[in-house]
Structures are given as structure tokens and as C-alpha cells.
Amino acid sequence: MKFTLLAALLLTGITPALAADYRQNPFTLAYDGAITANVPGRVNIHQVKYDLNGIQIAANIYTPANYDPTKQYPAIVVAHPNGGVKEQVAGLYAQRLAEDGYITISADAAYQGASGGMPRNVDKPANRIEDIHGMADYLSQYPGVDAARIGLLGICGGGGYSLQAVQTDKRFKALATLSMFDSGLVRRNGFQDSELATVQQRLAQATQARIREVTTGEVSYSADATPSEAQIAKLPFALYRQGYEYYGKTHAHPNATFRYTTSSLLALMRFDAQSNMALINQPLLMMAGTKADSRYMTESAFKKATGTRNKELFLIDNATHIETYWVARYVDLVTNKLTTFFGSTL
Predict the structure, then answer these.
(1) Which one in 125, 152, 252, 273 has a CA-CA gap of 20 to 30 Å to 131?
(2) What domain count does the chain have?
(3) Is 2's pLDDT higher than 70?
């Protein structure tokens, strides 16, 4: 059975009071101001599918107002957060950038969301990086896209994987990250190094999970618990407390889930989003909230980006990690910054 955070909350009796109800949107978009219909002369959304290494990928393409496929437009790939789907914050910023004249794409990661791949919710860094390359493959051939002017925006976990993608994929002429999350660092050490003492224990569990997959076909999952509202309130990090609120209530989507196969930890825990940062020679903009408890990852990666002469650390005053996903004043601020950044680099 397909697990979702939203379904789990329903099963526990928590009623999702949705601020951006995907059920009210014909494209199941779960963000404020989302497109509800394709109207000539305005920003439109195009639901597409394409194959990536034998897996069908589900994506949304946003085209700017008065889009003319015979013209040439700059374009931007948007990589979604861990556990997120293209209909949430990635879609929000893809739409906002399309409103500023870009052709944009956001796709569900392979094995996740509406994309194919079995078992479900495999979460391996190599796959997520390949997803970004694959979006560039598809976008570069889309009518109207100027393949010489493609940028990349990575959000949360998508930001960490974007750091790795641009190191070798020079189709990306500029990279911006928002609330970057280093999945390898956190899966290995715990958030803010809170699980250092259990690294070897968790690796042993991941190893046993892989053995079971191979020998019995049984798939084990991590982050698969269904906490109560009281338990969520006691979580020590705002990222997790507000994350449950965002993904489970205000901006829930049935394809979004926190869970991942436990065997994925074998790849996740040896991954480092901040390795080889000197290979990034493209313009780099890294953004994080001043109150984000994940801010330390953005600041650390930014210092290691020694290969580019054009880089900026942009701190969003008073914002937490999750608030950059949806709070109107922060979304406006980020969008304006992205428009300036990509306008000067693409």
C-alpha cells in the first residue's frame, strides 16, 4: 500500500486543515496563487512524462505569458526538497520564475511522487543527481528553450544535490539554492550532529535491510512513523516541527512522504553534498533564513565554493527553513532575488 504523510495523519484522526488545498486545484498544485487553468496569454502549466534510464518521470513545465515556441527563452530547472513533490514549493518557485519570463521545469524524483521506479521511495543521492541531469536533458530540447541559458534552483535536499550536479554538468550556467539541506551529512550525523553516537548502529540496520530485500523481497522503511500532534510539538528542531505542519496540513499532497527505504542509508550515509565544491565555477547564490536551524549547512557549503568568483550568501531576515517555502513576504523576497540573479547570469 502506498504510504503518504497525509494519509497517515488522517488515520490518526488529525484533520488536515489545508491552506493550499491540492483537491481544489485541477493540477493538484498545493501552493498559494497556483495556476487553476491554462489561459492564452498567461503563464501556463504543461504536465509531461519522459523516460530517464528506463524510469518514467512525471514533470510540470511552466511557460511564460505570451509564450511563443519559435522564440528563445532562458530556462530554469527546479529540484524539490526531500519528501516533497513538484506540486509544492518547487512548483511555487517554478511558477513564479515563469511569471518573470523563464521556461521552468520541476519533476518528481525517480522512485518518488508520480514518477516510476520500484520499490517506492528509494532515496539514493546518485538517483537524485541524475534526476537533475534528466530535467536538463528534457528542458534543453523543449520548444523555445535556449539551451545556452539554463539555470538551476535547488530547494532543501534538492539544493544539496544541485551542488553536486553543477560541478560536472556545465549546461547549468548559474546555480541558486534555497534552505540547502545536506542529506548525507544529516543521515550520517543526525540534524545538528544529534546522532553521532549511533552511526554504526544505524549502518548495521541499513545493511540488514538490504540483506532482507535481496533474500526475501521485504522492503524496510525509515522515517515511517506517524507521530501525534503532541509528539510533533515536542520535536527539538523547528525544521521538523514546521515540516510536519507544511507537508501534513497546510500544503499537503498525497504523493509527498518523509519515508525512504532503509537500505538507501548505505548510499546516503557515505554521501557528502559539500564535497568537491571547488569544481563549481558558475555563478552561485545560496539563500537561507537567519532563523533556520539548517542554516549551518548553507554557510558551510558556501565557504567551500572556492572555484567561482561570482558567489553570494543571501540571508533572509527572521525566516525559518520551512517558512521560505510559503510565507508570502519571504517568497516575494526570494523571487525578487532569483529574478535579479538569473537575470544577470542567464
Answers:
(1) 252
(2) 1
(3) no
